[in-house]
């Protein structure tokens, strides 16, 4: 691969940690800081609520009757809330399946969209407000379906000709049988303080999650050995999220960067490491819609700095159509250190 796997999940050719935003946006939504520190007073006080969350998740999984739809289902999920790199992992899987000559469809809940589905995403007709930003983005790579009822969505995809279904998130959803479950772990933050929401970032205990998983992907970071020990004996892959080489001359590019993803600081750091002159950064909440007054404010601020607006592919999906030409986009992709274990897992699932 030729890149070191560095802190935060991105392939970073140099530079230090991301600077804090010059003026954090008032709408930003962040995970509580105590989630990523040793358990203390806050996590202890929230333990009763965490116990309820754990009980409800376990009850839902145990009572579920997973449906089968006649085609293989590959689930890309995680054990924590927040961004870990699931969407780039889905794109990488689509590439591998396409190389095998298979017609893969994507299935998503459609978080952030108003439609409940089952519905195939049509980028010419739908917006992120309709179907969610991630499904809208993924529809450029493969036929993509949104459905609150995952089993109904999978049946619709199979009837439309899907030979394999890649489910974006839904590891804790028992409605649909999964032929391969891949959990994605942020190599920097790992499992945080090891506590369940809201006392920590975990959706369920690590031991219970890995018992249902087939494979883990650790994305970037400096805690790979620790995470590998925590999820043993689950087979693991390692990878990083790296900028896609598009020929864009980023070196010296003057930018006001904004992002509403799980961890905006990773995006800002990557821009700087590409040589972008980042004059300011603005962080927004994950999946947060971009209202016109906010965009106009960002545009005026960029003009005052003689800079151009830059964002992520996922954020670009939430922009109004008339604004997309005004904003530059940095696409990123997953790079695997060694994909042999993933290919072997796909061989097992697809051959059966």
UniProtKB/TrEMBL annotation:
Keyword Cell inner membrane attributed: no
Enzyme Commission number(s) from the entry: 2.7.1.130
Region feature Disordered, mapped onto this chain: 1-26
Catalytic reactions of this protein: a lipid A disaccharide + ATP = a lipid IVA + ADP + H(+)
Pathway listed: Glycolipid biosynthesis; lipid IV(A) biosynthesis; lipid IV(A) from (3R)-3-hydroxytetradecanoyl-[acyl-carrier-protein] and UDP-N-acetyl-alpha-D-glucosamine: step 6/6
Record: residues binding ATP: 80-87
GO MF: ATP binding; lipid-A 4'-kinase activity
Listed GO CC annotations: plasma membrane
Record's keyword terms, sorted: ATP-binding, Kinase, Lipid A biosynthesis, Lipid biosynthesis, Lipid metabolism, Nucleotide-binding, Transferase
Coiled coil: none
InterPro entries: LpxK, P-loop_NTPase
Biological process, per Gene Ontology: lipid A biosynthetic process; lipopolysaccharide core region biosynthetic process
Enzyme type, top EC level: transferase
The family this protein is said to belong to: Belongs to the LpxK family.
PANTHER family associated with the record: TETRAACYLDISACCHARIDE 4'-KINASE (PTHR42724), TETRAACYLDISACCHARIDE 4'-KINASE, MITOCHONDRIAL-RELATED (PTHR42724:SF1)
Entry function: Transfers the gamma-phosphate of ATP to the 4'-position of a tetraacyldisaccharide 1-phosphate intermediate (termed DS-1-P) to form tetraacyldisaccharide 1,4'-bis-phosphate (lipid IVA).
Name the record gives this protein: Tetraacyldisaccharide 4'-kinase
């Amino acid at each position: 691969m030729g890149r070191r796997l560095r802190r935060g999940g991105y392939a970073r050719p140099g530079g230090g940690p991301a600077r804090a935003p010059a003026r954090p946006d008032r709408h930003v939504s962040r995970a509580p800081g105590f989630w990523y520190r040793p358990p203390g007073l806050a996590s202890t006080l929230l333990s009763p609520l965490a116990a309820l969350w754990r009980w409800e998740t376990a009850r839902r999984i145990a009572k579920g009757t997973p449906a089968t739809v006649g085609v293989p289902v590959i689930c890309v999920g995680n054990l924590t809330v927040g961004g870990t790199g699931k969407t780039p992992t889905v794109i990488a899987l689509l590439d591998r399946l396409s190389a095998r000559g298979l017609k893969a469809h994507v299935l998503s809940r459609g978080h952030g969209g108003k439609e409940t589905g089952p519905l195939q995403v049509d980028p010419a007709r739908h917006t992120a407000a309709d179907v969610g930003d991630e499904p809208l983005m993924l529809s450029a790579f493969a036929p993509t379906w949104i459905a609150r009822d995952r089993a109904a969505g999978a049946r619709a995809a199979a009837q439309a000709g899907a030979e394999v279904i890649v489910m974006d998130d839904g590891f804790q959803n028992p409605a649909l049988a999964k032929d391969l479950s891949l959990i994605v772990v942020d190599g920097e933050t790992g499992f945080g303080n090891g506590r369940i929401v809201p006392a920590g970032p975990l959706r369920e205990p690590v031991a219970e999650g890995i018992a249902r998983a087939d494979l883990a992907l650790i994305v970037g970071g400096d805690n790979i050995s620790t995470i590998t020990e925590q999820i043993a004996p689950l087979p693991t892959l390692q990878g990083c999220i790296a900028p896609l080489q598009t020929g864009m001359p980023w070196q010296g590019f003057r930018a006001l960067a904004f992002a509403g993803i799980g961890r905006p600081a990773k995006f800002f750091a990557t821009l700087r490491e590409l040589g972008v002159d980042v004059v300011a950064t603005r962080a927004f909440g994950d999946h947060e819609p971009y209202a016109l007054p906010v965009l106009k404010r960002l545009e005026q601020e960029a003009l005052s700095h003689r800079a151009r607006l830059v964002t992520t592919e996922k954020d670009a999906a939430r922009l109004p159509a008339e604004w997309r030409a005004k904003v530059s986009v940095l696409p990123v992709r997953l790079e695997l250190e060694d994909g042999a274990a993933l290919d072997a897992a796909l061989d097992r699932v697809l051959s059966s």
